[in-house]
Amino acid sequence: MSDDKKYGLETVSIHTGCGPCPETGARTIPIHQTTAFTFKDAEHGANLFALKEAGYVYSRLTNPTVGALEEKLTALEGGSGATCAASGHGAQLLVLSALMSPGDHVVNSCKLYGGSVNQFAQIFPDMFGWQNTTFNPDNAEEARAAITPKTKAIFVESLSNPEGVVADIEGLAAVANEAGIPLIVDNTMATPYLCKPLQHGAHIVTYSTTKFLSGHGNAMGGAVVDGGNFDWLKQAGKFPRLAKANPNYNNIIFAESFGNMALAIHNHAVGLRDLGINQQPFNAYLTFIGLETLSLRMQKHCDNALTIAKHLEAHDKVAWVSYAGLESSKHHAAAKKYTNGEGGAVFTFALKGGYDACVTVVKELELFSHLANIGDTRSLVIHPASTTHSQLDSDGRAKAGAGDDVLRVSIGIETVEDLIADIDATLAKV
Ligand code: PLP
Hints:
Blueprint: H1 9-15, H2 42-49, H3 64-77, E1 81-85, H4 88-99, E2 105-109, H5 114-128, E3 131-135, H6 140-146, E4 151-157, H7 169-179, E5 183-186, H8 191-194, E6 204-208, E7 222-226, H9 240-243, H10 254-258, H11 262-275, H12 281-291, H13 294-313, E8 318-322, H14 332-338, E9 346-351, H15 354-364, E10 369-370, E11 380-382, H16 394-399, E12 406-410, H17 416-427
Helix pairs in contact: 3-12, 4-11, 6-7
Bound molecules: pyridoxal-5'-phosphate.
């Protein structure tokens, strides 16, 4: 579309990135299942390799189907460009690889998805020498206190998985601006339907598109959306990959040559090229189609989740429910500011019967699939302590809101009365 800014989120979800194919008239997005693209002539090939001209060379760097998804994500977030990766973890590696060098430091929320906690606290330091310090995402002052001269970014989930803590994005953006570093927000749980972090001052948005954006539990993917609002040249000493001459590309300076798209272009031209964590065209296609119904699905996810969270809160077998959509939640005020007062689809609750009761529930529920994913049309359940968060020690699990008595659910878009009947029949057995 010529001007995405004048259209609403539903229109952008459907139309952006996909006009009719000029050659065949195909109305929906084609899957460009090709490895490489022919050059028109020698000069064209040379220009593409030197980044003097935009176009397609090799699908590890760019691909039209993946590019269409990147265009849609850019428009949905209000960014300047996007880069898809093979998974959410791939996106996190991709963005940090543009910013960090061995010995550098990132300040990340202690309320991250368990796999991300492991990535930041164990794998990044071990493999790349990227150190980290954690902070509570609703306390920007803790983030400020953790920043050192080596810190290159603040990383937070807008709505945390699994506890649903809503980050103080504006407070954190102010801290990041003061320190001259970008604020990166993982918006996987909220999606642009509930929250647009760039509008609250964040500089970069990351996604596991595997979850609500694709929405049907059938396509792995990740994305980095460049907000286009960070002045890399002003912080050239901190961010040499973006703001100093690159000898691989005729000494161009990405921030000078590509302005507010510097990070997005670098993520393709260097990050994807050299890390090889590109998204497959078929997965991009599924996510592209999934996004067309994002708003319908997200509202139904939220409505069902709120109804079930209220039901569980009043249930005598349940010790507590952590869901930002509930008025009783300590995160509800922040949810009103950042996520339309909604809590999304994912939440945790604790059973008075502890570990054994949790094990019985995951076994007995009929409509809930017992698996390690969120953001499917189907309702899902997991016992984090024995699965997603099992790599953390008990202290880390408790900090992440995933103790032994805790269950995580991702509420689907089925008939809510059927889900409640399933829950009641199961809780009667513990
Ligand atoms: N971020 C969040 C909030 C997640 O929940 C997940 C996975 O569950 C990830 C990132 C990692 O995404 P992926 O599994 O696509 O690598």
